[in-house]
């Protein structure tokens, strides 16, 4: 049962360009995540759970299959307009 | 166990039908979600439609949590923004690269000097802006360089304009 030791630790010290942004401040360590590190974490199981408050995502912005909140004012688009008021010009 | 970001972020959104006018921008802003770790960022990001698929006249705003995405916010009022006007068809990749650079901390050293970013979907073009807290010329210049680096672009193929927030007086707060 060999457990690879290094695999559990991400290298957080390098940006894609090789610049070292990893440093410490009096307040503690400041971590910079490179684009590649962030992208590699996109496949983590924890990155796949639905976000908190998903039901509040506006419909036009949400990819989910949940029923999101409509962006338009409630009741505004549902009402069928009478023909004689359909072509109201306001600009 | 999740990997903490340097600071928590909030995603906002706003939409208006192209023929209508926004009466109260702040009131129409929708706080979509907040996140403070790499994983919770991906949770949010992967459930949001890519900018290019949004209806015309929609914005996403990504700002440090606690900063409202309006120029009047105390964190924004003394700053400004870099504006990138994009031809149609390239916004998604550039927005993703920018967002990763911002939350990852490779713009403005990951400090509070970076307030956030906005992507605006319009009929003829898409616009990205990067909001900076202070009008320090060195900071403004370095953020410009960092944006080019993050987006893998050069001034030759992508122009940026800087605009100060302090000059704002119009109540109309959509860029376009």
TrEMBL record, chain A:
Q: Which GO terms describe its cellular component?
A: cytoplasm
Q: Cite the InterPro entries for this sequence.
A: EIF4EBP
Per the record, the GO terms for biological process are: negative regulation of translational initiation
Q: Name one Pfam family in it.
A: eIF_4EBP
Q: Which UniProt keywords apply?
A: Protein synthesis inhibitor, Translation regulation
Keyword hit for Cell division: no
Record's keyword annotation contains RNA-binding? no
Instruction: Identify the stretch(es) annotated as Disordered.
Output: 1-23, 43-91
Residue spans of biased composition, Polar residues class:
8-23
Family, per the entry?
Belongs to the eIF4E-binding protein family.
Q: What is this protein called?
A: Eukaryotic translation initiation factor 4E binding protein
From TrEMBL, chain B:
What is the recorded name of this protein?
Answer: Translation initiation factor eIF4e
Q: Which GO terms describe its cellular component?
A: eukaryotic translation initiation factor 4F complex
Specify one Pfam family. IF4E
Asked if RNA-binding is a keyword of the record, the answer is: yes
What InterPro entries does the annotation carry?
Answer: TIF_eIF4e-like, TIF_eIF_4E, TIF_eIF_4E_CS
Task: Tell me a Gene Ontology molecular-function term this record carries.
Answer: RNA 7-methylguanosine cap binding
Q: Which family does it belong to?
A: Belongs to the eukaryotic initiation factor 4E family.
Q: Which UniProt keywords apply?
A: Initiation factor, Protein biosynthesis, RNA-binding
């Amino acid at each position: 049962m060999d457990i690879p030791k290094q695999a559990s630790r991400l290298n957080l010290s390098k940006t894609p360009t090789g610049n070292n942004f990893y440093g410490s401040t009096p307040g503690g360590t400041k971590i910079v995540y490179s684009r590649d590190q962030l992208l590699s974490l996109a496949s983590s199981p924890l990155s796949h759970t639905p976000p908190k408050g998903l039901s509040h995502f506006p419909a036009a912005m949400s990819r989910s299959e949940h029923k999101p909140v409509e962006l338009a004012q409630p009741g505004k688009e549902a009402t069928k307009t009478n023909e004689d008021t359909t072509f109201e010009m306001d600009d | 166990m999740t990997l903490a970001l340097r600071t928590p972020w909030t995603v906002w959104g706003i939409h208006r039908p192209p023929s209508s006018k926004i009466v109260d921008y702040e009131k129409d802003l929708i706080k979509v979600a907040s996140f403070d770790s790499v994983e919770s960022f991906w949770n949010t990001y992967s459930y949001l439609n890519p900018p290019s698929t949004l209806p015309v006249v929609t914005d996403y705003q990504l700002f440090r949590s606690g900063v409202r995405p309006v120029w009047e916010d105390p964190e924004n009022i003394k700053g400004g923004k870099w504006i990138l006007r994009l031809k149609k068809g390239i916004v998604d990749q550039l927005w993703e690269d920018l967002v990763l650079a911002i939350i990852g901390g490779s713009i403005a050293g990951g400090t509070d000097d970076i307030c956030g970013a906005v992507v605006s979907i319009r009929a003829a073009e898409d616009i990205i802006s990067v909001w900076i807290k202070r009008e320090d010329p060195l900071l403004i210049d370095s953020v410009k360089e960092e944006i080019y680096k993050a987006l893998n672009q050069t001034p030759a193929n992508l122009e940026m304009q800087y605009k100060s927030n302090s000059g704002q007086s119009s109540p109309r707060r959509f860029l376009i």
